[in-house]
Amino acid sequence: MSLTNDQMKTLYANMVRARRMDETMVQGLADGKAVSFFHSVQGEEAVGVGGCTFLRQDDYIWYHHRGHGIAHILSKGGSGAEFFAEHYGKATGSCNGLGAIHSVDTDHGIFGMCGTIGSVFPVSLGWGLAAKMNKREQVTVSFFGDGASNRGTLHEAMNMAAVMKLPIVWVCHNNLYAQFMPLSDAFPSKDIATLAVPYAMPSAIVDGQDVVAVHEAVQEAVARARAGEGPSLIECKTYRYRSHSEGSADISHYQPRPPEEVAAWKQRDPILLYRQRLLDTEVATVTELETIEAAAVSEAQSAERFAMESPAPEFSALAPALYKN
User: Fold this and answer.
1) H helices of the chain, where?
2) What is the mean pLDDT of residues 49-73?
3) How many helices (H) and strands (E) does the chain have?
4) What does DSSP assign to residue 140?
5) FRET pair for 277, CA 20 to 30 Å: which of 129, 159, 173, 180?
6) Has this prediction a pTM greater than 0.90?
7) Would the pLDDT of 186 be above 80?
8) What is the pLDDT, as a whole number, of residue 293?
């Protein structure tokens, strides 16, 4: 998919929107406003934005921990205000304040975050099967981290998806660490993409700090899936700036992650890299980008204000959330 100038600026806007929302949510947790877990996506915005921005509205996405950082949700058309309200435990949230990290927006094909590591694979498989059966050329894009790649469910799901030629694009955020464990201690190869080989799936390894590279790889795999040619695996080499989840220790081998490693990756910040690219290629002016950046700050503030001003859910909301008539 060739990008117009406006589309290229949309990618930038979505990354900046996600970063400002993420920063606001982190501060909200620190201030005691939020009542749920939060897994920041700072440093990895290009994966969610590049992977989701130009999907069809009726395509499905399943996000895992990094998707919780809102880049995927915003890029797929989800509401930042409802996302904040959900995490602040309010009735106006995407799950009426009862779902927290499982933010859902079925109108935009967003079905939340699975609760256990690796459970995203079988549910993505099921939605991929549904997409094949309904014959509307829908695609399921399933995001996961390098830590989840060691779960048996990945192999079961990838095998069945390949055998049945299901329209699924598997997208790995390889940020080099699971919660605490480095990939080098948990996997015999530096490339998660090698997992595609036994299932005869095409794969690609891309720079996860380059939003256009992610977009191009995912769109190529999406086109293949829509054409009935089956699943693909995209590995995005990226890095998370913050701990696995807010409030958890940011350690490896019982020590803090090497500060020089974190600093080196911040020199390749996906937003700053792409901002410079837009300026160098004259796709956007400084004034245009500053306007986008100011709008993102305003949107994040508005989303949090909406959450703070919303009511808590009524006790009566619990029963219909648990039981169906």
Assistant:
1) 5-30, 45-52, 71-75, 80-87, 120-134, 152-164, 211-226, 259-266, 270-280, 286-309, 318-322
2) 92
3) 11, 8
4) E
5) 173
6) yes
7) yes
8) 98
Q: Read off the pLDDT of residues 119-128 as tens digits, 9 standing for 90 and up.
A: 899 999 999 9
pLDDT in tens, 90-102: 999 988 888 767 7
Helix axes 5-30, 45-52, angle to 10 degrees: 130
Computed over every residue of the chain, the mean pLDDT equals 93
Residue type, 165: K
Length of the chain: 325
**3-class DSSP state of 208:** coil
Q: Are the beta carbons of 46 and 238 closer than 8 angstroms?
A: yes
Q: Which two tokens stand for residue 256?
A: 């803090």
Give Rg (Cα) of the chain. 19
Pairing mode of beta strands 255-256, 251-252: antiparallel
CB 82 within 8 A of CB 304: no
Burial 125-160 (b: 16+ CB within 10 A, else e): bebbbebbeeeebbbbbbbbbbbbbbbebbbebbeb
Query: In which residue are the tokens 């796709």 written?
Result: 283
pLDDT at 113: 78
Residue type, 133: M
Question: Is residue 203 classed exposed, middle or buried when 0-12, 13-18 and 19+ CB atoms within 10 A define those classes?
Answer: buried
CA distance 249 to 51: 29
Strands 110-113 and 232-237: unpaired
Report the alpha-carbon distance of residue 186 to residue 77 in Å, rounded: 35
Average of per-residue pLDDT across 271-293: 98
What are the residue ranges spanned by the domains of the chain? 5-244+253-322
Q: Tell me the pLDDT tens digit for each residue of 129-154.
A: 999 999 999 999 999 999 999 899 99
